Amino acid sequence: MFKTTTINKKVMHFRLLNNLSQADLGKKIEELTGETCDRHAISRYENGKRKIPVNYVPVLAYIFGVSINELFYSSKELKQQGSSGSLEVQVAEFKELVAGHSSAISKKALEVIERAQKEIQDLKGQAKLYQKDTKKYKEELEKIKPFIKKIGKYVAQIEVHTD
């Protein structure tokens, strides 16, 4: 979606995506940081006339409900960084699709849901294995408890005799 990704353009994109005016965004920043931020400041940030303060980056990510990386990179750029299977990239792709084609969103959503269902099944299988292992370890522990108690008694007796 973004040929040259700049945080300025991304802020404007996410502000519009969240139906916020520049004044609304300024108020939200003010509420979260305690620093004065009006619509004129937001306009200058979006137009690249002023740099966005570093301490605003996590605040903006929070307001827009995105990761900090999404403020700097497109989903394509995130993929190129090697995190193509990550949830962060998938969420970024959805957000870019929302701005474009809704039918593509449905298809992508189904793919992600199917992948999530498979992962859930895999996790359930792993959980069953862990439950079996836990039961086995508890049984083994019960078997060796008497020996541990005996060893404890012998150690105590040895300590008494060596003192």
TrEMBL record:
Q: Where is the HTH cro/C1-type domain?
A: 15-71
The entry's keywords? Coiled coil
Q: Which InterPro entries match?
A: Cro/C1-type_HTH (IPR001387), Lambda_DNA-bd_dom_sf (IPR010982)
Cite a single GO MF annotation: DNA binding
The name on file for this protein is Helix-turn-helix domain-containing protein
Q: What Pfam families is this protein classified in?
A: HTH_3
Which PROSITE patterns does the UniProt entry name for this protein? Answer: HTH_CROC1
Q: Which Gene3D superfamilies match?
A: lambda repressor-like DNA-binding domains
Q: Which residues form a coiled coil?
A: 106-140
